[in-house]
Structures are given as structure tokens and as C-alpha cells.
Design a protein that fits this description.
Length: 408
């Protein structure tokens, strides 16, 4: 017996995960309340060709190739669930599912097949034939997605008889596809559902469960996006605070540099004054030296009584005054020379500080530009960022061969 369902894009993720037996939180994703025998799960297989992408990605690709309305209620996937009848023997199951897939592929188009997973780990072996419902719009001359037009009453009336006939031609006998529920081929899937109230309730519960899980998944995605936004905002605020701190340090360094330049100028004035003093003292010493030479012309003579003749008391007083002034001038000269040396050392120290401050200002500016560059680089798409980083790598220079190697 076969059963058809139609699904919107919101339900495709959950269902395709169930088809291929994907795990969530360590457990297999189930559709409804099926009991899965995990020991037989490795026996499941897919009859459809591998598309090189996930089932959901293939649905997105195929609906993008044809006309598809961008509405939440559009059914973008249909799924026939064909259960193996009791009349099919164990050694005939593989051929039964293979021929069922062949029938469905021809009926709905090989380009539209999403997957065809055979489940042998549940109570009854069955196949989920999932496909995108694509039809040709004769009026507009384009292919479009329309489950309503593809799976109409005509298709539903003929489906079970056509499948029964195809399998009978292969196996040489009727397998029991047509039964009390399906032999009246004009009954739709909705009519079949009305025949069993339990099935209707179960299907409704399954759809509610799927909707709840889809809702929870979207909530998780929204939370993740919000967390990423908060993290980006915190990083941006931290960068802005760092830039403010760098700007303050630059301003402080500029002020310190101005003060140092003023101090250097002040020291230069003091050095000039001390140099002028030194020059004045040298002139004083030179002038006093002339007076000393004049005093050398004095010829003192010793008398019989032992007194000194030829030197007056005024000469002795002047000589004493000259000696004291010379000593005072010499001490002042030494002090002034030390001051000049100290001033020159301070000027040298301040001059060394100015370049270091300029280097620090330049380093801070480079850091700020680097932060801005990193932020811009982080916002680029991954392929573009990789190409850009590859472009920035220094080119490898091939070593040149020696001259003697060329001569060989």
C-alpha cells in the first residue's frame, strides 16, 4: 500500500533528517512515534543517486531552477511511502523496492527526485520516495512547482492500479498493492485518512511535533545570532575604548614633547648666560695678569736690619687683594664650567627623549590603523579574506645560481 504527503519548506529539514537517519543529541531523528530497531539501521539504503549535496540543499537548488512562488504555504516536497505487501517474500524485497523506485522515477521525473530511502529497521519495510512536484505550465511555457496540479485526482485514481500493473509485469503475479483501501482508485489521500481516525490523530500530532521542533530550532538560531551580535558589539566597544585611550596617550605625549622643547630652550638660555660669565671671568683674569706683571717689576731689597726695601704697605695690600680675587675668580670659573657641562648633559637627555616620544606616537598610530585594518578584514567573506592574505604574503625569491654554474 502507498501513502502520499505534501510538505512545505519548514518541514523538509526534519523529514529529510528522518529519511537518512541523522542523529540529534545522540539519538536518531524519528518521524512520529516509530520504533526503530537500531541493530537493523545499517541495512537501510538510498535508491536515488547522490546529488553531491544535502537533501535540503537539493530542494533549494531545484526550486531555484524552475518557477516557485515565495510563500510559506507552498508545498515544495511530496513523499510517497510505499510499504512492502505481505505477498512479497524476503528475498524479493530488494527487487520490489528497486522496481517501485523505477516506476516512481519515470512518473515524476528523475531530475526532481530528492531521495528514496528504504527503511528496514522499522516494523514493516518501506521506501520514502521524496521528490519536488514540478509541472509544465503550457500557458506560460515554463516549468513550475505545483503539488496541486501534479498530484490531482487523476493521478491519485491511477497511481495504485498503475503501480500494481508494473509490479505484476515484473514478478509475474499480483503483489497486493490494491486492497480494500486502494482498489477504488478514485479515492484521494484525504479520503483514505478519513477511514481511520487514529491515523488522522497521529498525523496531526506528528505535524505539531515537527512544527514545535522547527520553532525551537529557529529560536536557537535567533539566540545564536543575538549572542554573536552582543559579542561583536562588546568587541567594537572594547576597540573604541582602546582607541580613545591611545588618543589620550598621544595627546599626553604631544604635551610632554612641547614641555621638553620649552625646557631645552630654557636650558640653552642658561648655558648662554654661563658661557658669557666664563668669558667675563677669562677677561678679568687676563686683565689681572697685566697687573701682576707690573708688580713683578717691583724689586724688593733686604736691608741690614732685615726689613724689605722697595715695597710699600699699599703694594702688599694690593698683592693680597689680587691673590684673593684670583682665587675667587678661579672657583667661580670651575663652578660655571660644571654648570655648563650639566646643562649640556640635560639638553642631550631631552633630545634623546624627543625621538623616543615621536616613535611612541607613531607606534600608537600604527596600532590604531592595525585595529581598523583587522576589523575591516574580519568583515570580508572567507574566500576574499584568504585571497587578500595570500596577496600580502612576501614573494619567495628563488636563489640565484652562482656564476661558475652558469659557465658550466
Amino acid at each position: 500500500m502507498a501513502h502520499l504527503e505534501k510538505y512545505t519548506v519548514a518541514a523538509t529539514g526534519r523529514l529529510t533528517n528522518h529519511y537518512e537517519r541523522r542523529k540529534y543529541n545522540g539519538e536518531y531523528i524519528k518521524f512520529g512515534n516509530q520504533n526503530i530497531d537500531l541493530s537493523r539501521t545499517p541495512q537501510n539504503y538510498n535508491l536515488a543517486p547522490f546529488r553531491g549535496m544535502s537533501q535540503v540543499d537539493f530542494i533549494r537548488q531545484r526550486t531555484g531552477e524552475v518557477k516557485c512562488m515565495k510563500r510559506q504555504d507552498v508545498n515544495v516536497m511530496c513523499s510517497w511511502v510505499v510499504t512492502a505487501p505481505v505477498g512479497v517474500k524476503e528475498n524479493e524485497l530488494s527487487e520490489f523496492f528497486r522496481e517501485t523506485y523505477s516506476f516512481l522515477e519515470r512518473r515524476y521525473g528523475s531530475r526532481n527526485v530528492i531521495s528514496a530511502f528504504v527503511h528496514k529497521d522499522e516494523v514493516t519495510p518501506h521506501v520514502h520516495f521524496a521528490f519536488v512536484p514540478v509541472v509544465y505550465d503550457k500557458k506560460k511555457g515554463v516549468y513550475k512547482v505545483s503539488a496541486k496540479e501534479l498530484i490531482d485526482r487523476t493521478d491519485l485514481r491511477s497511481f495504485h492500479p498503475d503501480l500494481e500493473q508494473h509490479l505484476a509485469d515484473v514478478f509475474g503475479r499480483e503483489l497486493g498493492i490494491l486492497n480494500e483501501a486502494t482498489k477504488e482508485g478514485n479515492r484521494s489521500v484525504e479520503d483514505l485518512k478519513r477511514g481511520t481516525a487514529v491515523e488522522r490523530i497521529r498525523d496531526a500530532e506528528e505535524m505539531v511535533k515537527i512544527a514545535e521542533e522547527v520553532y525551537q530550532e529557529r529560536i536557537m538560531v535567533i539566540r545564536k545570532v543575538n549572542e554573536d551580535c552582543d559579542r561583536q558589539r562588546r568587541e567594537t566597544e572594547a576597540i573604541a575604548a582602546k582607541l580613545d585611550e591611545v588618543n589620550r596617550e598621544i595627546e599626553q605625549n604631544v604635551q610632554i614633547r612641547g614641555k621638553l622643547e620649552l625646557e631645552i630652550n630654557r636650558l640653552r638660555v642658561q648655558v648662554k648666560a654661563e658661557q658669557d660669565k666664563l668669558e667675563h671671568f677669562h677677561n678679568m683674569l687676563d686683565g689681572r695678569a697685566l697687573s701682576v706683571r707690573e708688580m713683578q717689576g717691583i724689586q724688593p731689597q733686604k736691608t741690614v736690619t732685615g726689613t724689605i726695601k722697595g715695597i710699600s704697605l699699599e703694594d702688599i695690600s694690593n698683592l693680597k687683594k689680587t691673590g684673593m680675587l684670583y682665587r675667587e675668580t678661579l672657583e667661580q670659573l670651575q663652578y660655571s664650567q660644571k654648570r655648563c657641562d650639566w646643562f649640556e648633559a640635560e639638553i642631550g637627555r631631552y633630545r634623546r627623549l624627543v625621538p623616543s616620544i615621536e616613535e611612541k606616537i607613531q607606534a600608537e598610530q600604527n596600532m590604531r590603523e592595525l585595529q581598523i585594518f583587522r576589523k575591516i578584514l574580519a568583515g570580508l567573506p572567507e574566500p576574499v579574506r584568504q585571497e587578500f592574505l595570500k596577496f600580502l604574503e612576501p614573494a619567495k625569491v628563488q636563489p640565484q645560481r652562482g656564476r661558475h654554474e652558469h659557465e658550466r
